[in-house]
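Predict structure. Chain length: 281.
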Amino acid sequence: MKGPLVIDFESLWQEGMHDWHGKMPQRMVDDALEEAFWTQSIAKKTLRQTDAYAAEIFQVIQQHITSEDSVLEIGPGWGNYTFPLVEAAKKVTCVDSSQSVLAYLQNCLQDKPDVDYVHAKWEEAAESSIGPHDIVIGVNCFYRMYHMKAALVQMNRLANKKAIIGMTTGPIQPHYEVLEERYGYDIKYPRRDYIELVNMLYQLGIFADCQMIPLERVYRYDSEEALLAAQSKKILSEQVDLAHVRDALTTFIERDGEAYVYRHRFYAAIISWSPAKTGSE
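Prediction complete.
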């Protein structure tokens, strides 16, 4: 009988990077396209704008951090966790492959001298240019990392006290399940999830803690047309009848004046461990 150590969870992770047609999306391999994505995304942000649900995730992460700690953050993006980290920790180092991201954070944090910025992919970053930190953390930042075990080993090696991973997870917006069950549509379900990371750590000899945080994201749309367009994007089938989408959404929509409100309940997994000797070191 095969046990969990026989399954190649890194290969499952890599397979999940491909789309539903077995192809690697261009953004996964094209650095210029990834940079363009972040440039466009940040252009739409106001300074220090963050996602509301991130505050609940940080409340859990903060329990591992003291005011005397140095923190290394992988893939900070538009600063969901960077901004509270600089208030909670003694020093923060941000490592990101996007120059646009780092320039934006530097602009937002001009009054914070104890923040360093390293322009590099985590999986290619030279450890000599980063150095150990008390805490190493990455939240929703691993989507382009192909050799995930090596990325985890590097987190483990550079953490003096604690390594922390945050990853939002399912369930998918529930109307998609209705569309699949009632109308037979093919749905673009997520192909990678936090459990693969937990199992990779286990294979490395690391017994990580995993805490699940219930979250809610609220979508507001000014028109039914906007609602239907936004909430049909995960349908893979070529032919889509918007009447089916409208019917599937009925149970889940609230009205606020003229606006359509959709509440999506999902989770974040917070995976944490104390640094340990691994079989890869």
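Summary: The radius of gyration is 20 Å.
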